[in-house]
Amino acid sequence: MMPDNRKIFLISFIVNLVFSMITALLALIVYTINHNIYDVNYIMTAFISTLVLTRILLVKVQLSPSFQVILGSFLFTFGCLFLTIFSDCFAMVFIGALLFGMAIGFIAPALLTMLTDSNAERNIGIYNTIVAIASIFSPLIGEKFYAFNSLMLFTFWLILSILMTILSIMIKEKNTTLLIGVNKDMKNISVILSNRAFKEAFWVLLFSSISYGSIVSYLPIYFKKMGFSIGIYYLLFWSGYIFVQFLRKSVANDKIIFWSILGISLGQLTLVFFDISYIIYISSIVYGMGYGTLFKIFYLKIGLFSKKYTRNLAFSIIGLISYLGVGLAPIFLLPFNVENWRTLFLGNLLYCLIALALFVILERKKYGTRC
């Protein structure tokens, strides 16, 4: 029988493989229905709203991590089912987005919690690499399949989600209780919120994820108009993300965070000043390296929390913040959404610089005048 860690890694691979394709293509799927770019905002709001509510539930109610994975897998499967049957109906795609939000809300922190029970650094390195490998080719494959036969692609997603659900049921956990308890006080939350590493991760990831959110929401449409390939962009982005997972020094040096945010900013700056495909593609590698380094460092720091429930809660909140940034991107970018792509990407760059400024302020508080 397959060991539990391998099942967890395989579930991580499947959910990220399918979800990366959905993320890359969702804007196009929604835009194809009514040819209205603002419909993308509604879908992202639906996704983020249920994700937020799910994470709030996890703050209050302590569920077994294995049960969270099972529940999330079932929800993810139903989301794929709705998308397969009703891909040309905006209302049904909207419901699918709600289900995906709940699914990711349950699955992601539970997987990380189980993997950090032992050998946290090794397992998180493997997890991040698996996430990146699952994501590296999926947008390009999804883009080609979607153009060839969208129904075939949606059916493929449904089959993989069913397999993921079966694997989740097979996971055995020492504590088999589904409901561990109800959090009646704020002690665990206060421990997390008072942690310096958590505060840093909270603000940096929030504003950095707004930057990534514009890529998810608007870049597929922009690339379609320009004749570029979103699949190639994501391929190179996740190549950079994978590369930094093997750089052990990045874990020990907080100043690497500064350079990571600069890399993300450079990716946005390129979109502002260039409309040449190969320059934008190359910049996506630097973008991916910066984004991947941020998550590697912050996940490892949270993995040092001693209590399982505290780790699960911290992963839930950090995961929520990163997705919240993605979901809020269309709202935060409304002042810059004036039917001018350069203005939109310039506004996006502003949020990268806010993340950089907040990091510098937090570091100066830690070291005095040093950065």
Explain the overall architecture.
- With 371 residues, this protein is mainly α.
- It has a single domain, classed as Up-down Bundle (Growth Hormone, Chain: A).
- The chain is built from 15 helices and 2 strands.
- The protein has helices spanning 4-34, 39-60, 65-85, 90-115, 120-136, 138-148, 150-170, 187-193, 196-226, 230-244, 249-252, 255-273, 277-303, 308-332, 341-367, and strands spanning 61-63, 179-182.
- It has a two-stranded antiparallel sheet.
- Helix 1 (4-34) runs parallel beside helix 5 (120-136) and helix 4 (90-115) packs antiparallel against helix 14.
- The chain is globular, with a radius of gyration of 20 Å.
- The mean pLDDT is 78.
List the helices and strands and how they pair.
Blueprint: H1 4-34, H2 39-60, E1 61-63, H3 65-85, H4 90-115, H5 120-136, H6 138-148, H7 150-170, E2 179-182, H8 187-193, H9 196-226, H10 230-244, H11 249-252, H12 255-273, H13 277-303, H14 308-332, H15 341-367
Antiparallel strand pairs: 1-2
Helix pairs in contact: 1-4, 1-5, 1-6, 1-7, 1-9, 2-4, 2-14, 3-4, 3-7, 4-14, 5-10, 5-13, 6-7, 6-10, 8-14, 9-13, 9-14, 9-15, 10-13, 12-13, 12-15
CATH class: Mainly Alpha
Structural class: mainly alpha
SSE order, one letter for each helix or strand: HHEHHHHHEHHHHHHHH
Look at the structure and give the mean pLDDT: 78
What is the CATH homology-level superfamily?
MFS general substrate transporter like domains
Distance between the termini: 51 Å
